[in-house]
Amino acid sequence: MIPLIGLVLCTAWSCKDKDTTDAAAPIPKIESYFDAAYVASTGFEDFNKTIAVSDGKPVRVFKDLIGDKDLIWSKQVGVNGDDVPGPLWPTPPTYSKDGMGGSVLVQNISPNQWLSKDFAAVPQPYDVYIVLRENQGVRYEGYFQVGYGLRDRGSFLELAMNASTGGGSTLVNMSPPTIFEPYKLAIVRLRIDGAKSKLWINDVMIPPGEVNLGNAQLTRLGYGTPSHADQHDFYGMWVKFGTLSDADHKNIYEQLTSIYTPNSFPEFPIANKIRMDWNNAGGWNASYTYYSPTGVAEDKSKTEYKWGYHTLGKDLNTVTYLQGKSATTATLLRSDFPTEIPAPHDGKTTEIFVAVKVYDVNGKSWTRFLRSEFLQDNKN
Q1: Nearest residue to 267 (alpha-carbon basis) of 236, 292, 296, 300
Q2: Regarding the domain delimited by 30-259, which CATH topology (the fold level of the hierarchy) does it fall under?
Q3: What architecture does CATH give domain 270-376?
Q4: Which of 134-138, 274-278, 323-327 shows the lowest mean pLDDT across its residues?
Q5: N or C: fewer beta carbons within 10 Å in the chain?
Q6: For the whole model, what pTM was predicted?
Q7: In the chain, where does the domain assigned CATH 2.60.120.200 lie?
């Protein structure tokens, strides 16, 4: 695939000799439209920005491709809300190389965010593009919530503009025709413009159209949330202080879709629609739908399973993977783990999940285990 940085698309007319009289102006590279831009592949492993990110390594800094608003992995400390760099679980989310420039897995942990330094307040409007891929797992959480925000609320999306200067936090319920589908790529566009704010997903405006998000102003940029994030893959973000014309958007969207294919699955085999079912024999059975983008058959003999549990709320901060016996098979026997998941159990404090990794007959697989949603362990 073509790398994003420095991309200039050529059409039959746009790359003609500059002296040709019938040639239109070349389409600008995508960064020329924006005031800040970030893509997963330009991250750094270290805070000093000396080690470029590589496959499977943590991302502590996202380089601003345009200016000086680098995003730094941060956490909230102290009563004054100061932000200081620091890995949390146990390191920042990791980079995965793929055919679309790579992505960073934003996990369901708290907090989970990269922040720029503060800058002088910039008034609305803003145009923002974000490319992400929903993961199966915990829902009802935020994708990003630093100034402008978008949160999954199960049957609808919540668009937000949070207090910074000049206004309070405003939340508006949006009603997409479908919620983000797990593992399908989405191009999200936000227009933050007071009472004329809008949300698009894959170039489709989400009802009710124009909504009022108040007049709060940006004093920093960031990605992720100060609380638990909806688990997803982050590919890139582009921010405009001001608004873009319809012609600008057309060019931007064409360039983005030449790299990031809307509604596409990963280019490697995955276990999709992972679920767990009680088998009435003291255990849980895992199942999934195998997907291969190239149609190559599954090698079921290589399928890997990891069962786990957690307590005190739906977040990965307290996840523990079970060890030994049936913990790595398609069927989890509760009797193998009487301490971790005692039976019978009311399910209020213990929930279980299963993570699955599949392979095709050529030995190919996505780089990580994919996880089911949490399920209360309350069966007898």
Answers
A1: 292
A2: Jelly Rolls (2.60.120)
A3: Sandwich (2.60)
A4: 134-138
A5: C
A6: 0.78
A7: 30-259
